[in-house]
Amino acid sequence: MIGRAPDTPDTETWLRQILRGDSCRSDKEFVLAGNTFAEIYAMARELRELFSTPACREEVICLAAENKAVIAAAVLSSLYGGPTLLLPFAFSGRALAEMREATGFTVAISDRKRDFPAGTKVICPEPGSARHVHKLPPIDPDAELLKLFTGGSTGTPKSWSKTADNLFSEAFYLTQKYQISSKDMIVATVSPYHIYGLLFSVIIPLISSAAVFPGTPSFPAEIAAAVIDNSATVLASVPVHYRILRGRQTSSGSLRLAFSSAGMLPRADNEEFCRRNDVPLIEVYGSTETGGIAVRVRAEGGEAYSPFETVDWQERNDNLYVRSPYIAPDAERDKDGFFAANDRIESGPNNSFFLRGRSDAVAKVGGKRVNLMEVRDKIKAQRGVEDCFVVTMADSGGRESIIAALIAGEVVDLKELKQNLMEQLEPYARPRLLKKTANLPLTAAGKYDLEVIKRFLAG
Fold it and tell me: Cα separation of 189 and 186, whole Å?
């Protein structure tokens, strides 16, 4: 297989090592001040036995738990030969109903009462006692392990399949590359129902025996307390959280690794975090469908992204194409196995590349091509603008597209901003609809919530 990490045994060998728990001490905490590895493995085996009974013999099971120990046990149970897990983008009744309609699931794993669709059988696992595994079932690294669901602007959930090889080979690579071990304690501020959060708060701990913080802190004081009070060594966060951490000390010296993913991180936020905490910030570029692709470390002089050693990449007509073991099996590839990442790039030195915006950021307005990212950059450069999101929308008559922008910044003067944009943009590229808000709405994964933004602009 292409792109295998150096010194990595074959997939089935190290998956069997994980299932046996060879790399972890049974009495060590998986969740800080919570369940041990032994309890998680026992829970996983009990789940697997339950799934084999006629009452729970399902092809897919909805996983809707917040306890990371339960999530880890469910993932292990699927590795043990259990059913495919469905990971919803939200736990609301509406989101679960949409996922039921898309998949037909009738069994769910949860750690609390939720608004599941009528007729759902809910399993609430409890930690058990450790039991030795005498015989492991056959393992197929390419079998579907889980489906990650994301909410779309249409409200219809979109899913991406992930195999054991997709998830565990990426986690194994990151564990090796950054030498994550049982001495580490990880704080993740992104939900484990997002690919990035799942890797850092469930899969990597299973591989490395690192402990993980039980919650998912999102406010500045919560994040700082989680890192400082627990002597965290690894922080996995998202751009919006690094922004709200500006001006705040986040580590007392224990932190050695900080990661940012799920969006572009402004340079000022990067520099502020590194200056205050004396730790380089590693920006990870990737997506749910591709897994991780590349990283950059601006504190070390890197503006370009350096691809993982496990990823092959090509530039075709200024667009990025990638090939790696992490790409979802249902992602469309060309005959050579390359996937169009939908981002524009420019080649850099030493096998690196610069990101130049989304390929789909070019829209037709009045018959003219407009790069929405360039419009966004012009707006973000205006006085008082903290952030903004630019979209195209149908006009009131529904006959043509107009450019609209939602702007974050309480002191922004929209009249002044419009005047400045008249001088900087061609008439067809100027937003015809401008609204401002204190903060741009975000999803649980820390990404811009396009559905909410469009409703706000249309209201």
Answer: 10
Rounded Cα distance between 454 and 389, Å, is 10
Domain boundary among 162, 187, 216: 162
CA-CA distance, 114 to 202, in Å (whole number)? Answer: 22
Burial class (CB in 10 A: 0-12, 13-18, 19+), 109: buried
Structural domains of the chain, count: 2
Contacts of 197 (CB under 8 A, 6+ apart): 188, 190, 191, 216, 236, 445
Residue range 278-316, pLDDT digits in tens: 999 999 999 889 999 999 999 888 789 999 999 999 998
Reported pTM: 0.79
- What is the phi-psi region of residue 27: left when phi exceeds 0, alpha when psi lies from -120 to 50, beta otherwise? alpha
Q: Please indicate, yes or no, if residue 279 is contained in any of the structural domains.
A: no
Domain region containing 138? 1-162
What's 74's domain CATH number?
3.40.50.980
Closest CA to 409 of 429, 434, 432: 434
Angstrom CA distances, 394 to 79, 130, 227, 399, 407, stand at 47, 59, 45, 7, 19
pLDDT in tens, 401-438: 789 999 998 888 999 999 999 888 888 888 999 999 98
Contacts of 199 (CB under 8 A, 6+ apart): 167, 170, 171, 174
Give the domain CATH number at 405: 3.30.300.30
Q: Which long-range contacts (CB under 8 A, 24 or more apart) does 311-318 make?
A: 311/3, 312/2, 312/3, 312/338, 313/353, 314/338, 315/345, 315/346, 315/347, 315/353, 318/344, 318/345, 318/346, 318/356
Domain's final residue, options 162, 196, 218: 162
> Quick check: is 79 in a domain?
yes
Per-residue pLDDT at 316: 87
The answer to whether residue 28 is domain-embedded is: yes
| Token pair belonging to 273 | 């975090």
Pairing of strands 319-323, 339-347: antiparallel
Indicate whether 336 belongs to any domain: no
Q: Quick one: tokens of 99?
A: 């996922």
Spatial CB neighbours of 382, under 8 Å, sequence gap ≥ 6: 412, 416, 417, 420, 421
Whole-number pLDDT of residue 393: 82
Q: What is the mean pLDDT of residues 163-179?
A: 94
Q: Identify whether the C-beta of residue 137 lies closer than 8 Å to the C-beta of residue 45.
A: no
- The rounded distance, in Å, linking the Cα atoms of 174 and 276 is 25
Confidence check: pLDDT of 443 > 60: yes
